[in-house]
Amino acid sequence: MHIIGRTGMYFGSVLNILSGATAVFLGTYFFSRIKEKQETETRLERIEHILQRLSEEKEKK
């Protein structure tokens, strides 16, 4: 019985480490996806602004 108790304790420790590592990995993944989405939106806004300025300049001519 003593061996079974130790095995369970080690298994619990490994499970805690794996769950912590998974949480860190998923947090990093989601953070990078959110940052990438914000960067994409910023680029699109810049392109829209440039196109708007070009169309205004074309109308002036």
Structural summary, described in words:
By secondary structure, the chain is mainly α. The chain has one domain. It is about 95% helix and about 0% strand. It contains 1 helix and no strands. The chain starts with a helix and ends with a helix. The model has no long low-confidence stretch (mean pLDDT about 90).
Topology (elements, then pairings):
Blueprint lengths: L1 H59 L1
Biggest beta sheet summary: none
Counting DSSP E segments of at least 2 residues, the number of strands comes to: 0
Envelope shape: rod-shaped
Question: β content, as a range?
Answer: under 5%
Instruction: Give the tally of structural domains.
Output: 1
How much is the radius of gyration in Å? 26 Å
User: What is the distance, rounded to the nearest whole angstrom, between the alpha carbons of the first and last residues?
Assistant: 90 Å
**Structural class by SSE content:** mainly alpha
Task: Tell me the number of helical segments per DSSP (H or I, 4 or more residues long).
Answer: 1
Average pLDDT across residues?
A: 89
- Report helical residue fraction: over 70%
Give the gist of this structure.
The protein is mostly helical.
Tag the structure with descriptive keywords.
single chain, 61 residues, mainly alpha, 1 helix, 0% strand, rod-shaped
